[in-house]
Amino acid sequence: MGMDGPGERMQKNAPIISFHNFSFQYFSQKEPTLLDIDFEIYPGEKILIVGPSGSGKSTLAHCINGLIPYAYKGTITGTMTVDGKTPEESSLFERSRKVGTVLQDSDSQFVGLTYPRLKVDEGVFGWKDVLTFNIFQILANVAAWIVVAPVLDIVVYGEPANLVFTQGAVAALWNAISMGVIGTLLLFLYSKTRAGKGTLSKE
In terms of domains, do 97 and 109 share one? Predict the structure, then answer.
């Protein structure tokens, strides 16, 4: 059985991410970081993008997850869509519901400011640690979804305040619940794989 060509693949489904003659130049730079980017990613595909430092990998990721143009400003030419929508057709809130980013230091990203206060690397994750983790993750979700995201939607896109704050509250609630359950479970399981201090004894 042969593999589908690009034409056959497009007939089956639309690309989830699409770049066509796309270029981006930060206002602070004299040359574009991305120049004439042209590719499509379809649902279910796993794509690896490699290149040397400074080649534009992070900038490309920022275009996909919405940091460009919502947070990082510059000159854009060409078109880029995520789930069929250009940045102008979707808000920061909508983009964040479809695209997530896992950074190189995933421990710090998911546990954030709580990580230095926990001792999971030492095999310790008790009730006090569960409480500490969940207090911080709830505060982080409230700040991100009820303050930052709605304010940016209002300032950048002129979205109705009552709508974006309601959406933010719902997102904060569900994220806090899911992170509380899944995050706590993952941290507990991870702590069980680590050797606690003093577990080795001399015989």
Answer: no
